[in-house]
Amino acid sequence: MARESHLREYQTNILARLEDAKKAGAEAPAGYLGVVIGSKNVLVNLQEISETMPIADIHRVPIVKPWFLGVANVRGVLYAINDLAQMLENTFTTISSNARLLLMSNAVTSNVAFVVDRMIGLRKLEEMKLHEETTEEGTCLKAQTYQDEENRVWHILDCDKLVHSKEFSIPYVV
After folding, report:
1. pLDDT in tens, 36-71
2. CA distance 148 to 167
3. What is the pTM of this model?
4. Rounded distance, CA 10 to CA 115, Å?
5. Which of 97, 78, 73, 95 is nearest to 86 (CA)?
6. Is the pLDDT of residue 96 over 60?
């Protein structure tokens, strides 16, 4: 029980810090939210997401690619819900109490969200070093990777590139 309360406090703290960062966003980029997508540590620019929330009821849609999980009603607005782990690695995100929905900012696109395995916390690139190895640029990950002080490798999600990719913009099966 004590572990669950600590986890809730940690998540509540992250959400409060995200709100503070979003309010201060007009002055300068607030940094990144560190999340786990599949087997990758991923940095999501705080300017590209509008909100994080627990997984909502997702209603399946027929004849779509496996990574398109369906739609969810978020405060009266339908959001298209995507599983980036399935798209990138062909592994489904386990829907658990740690999993979260990240709603993309209207500056990127409207009414689109994706699931992440779990949130790690706020990160700044200035506190990391460019990793010596770069990866092949994919549908939504930038080629540059970064390494933190704990020697974890971080990929950077490019939401704009993702929503403009042909694969992502056509989720139905042809």
Report:
1. 999 999 999 999 999 999 998 999 999 999 999 999
2. 31
3. 0.79
4. 19
5. 95
6. yes
User: Phi and psi for 20 in degrees, rounded to 5?
Assistant: -60, -40
Q: Report percent pLDDT > 70 for the chain.
A: 86
Domains and CATH numbers, the chain: 2-169 (2.40.50.180)
> pLDDT band at residue 4, thresholds of 50, 70 and 90?
low
Q: What is the pLDDT of residues 68-86, one digit of tens each?
A: 999 999 999 999 999 999 9
Q: Are strands 40-45 and 129-130 parallel, antiparallel or unpaired?
A: unpaired
- Is the model's pLDDT at 135 over the cut of 80? no
Question: According to the 3-state scheme, what is the secondary structure of the chain?
Answer: CHHHHHHHHHHHHHHHHHHHHHHHHHCCCCCEEEEEECCEEEEEEHHHEEEEEECCCEECCCCECCCEEEEEEECCEEEEEEEHHHHHHCCCCCCCCCCEEEEECCCCCCCEEEEECEEEEEECHHHCEECCCCCCCCCCEEEEEEECCCCCEEEEECHHHHHHCHHHHCCECC
The length of the chain is 174
Which region holds residue 144: left if phi is over 0, alpha if psi is between -120 and 50, else beta? beta
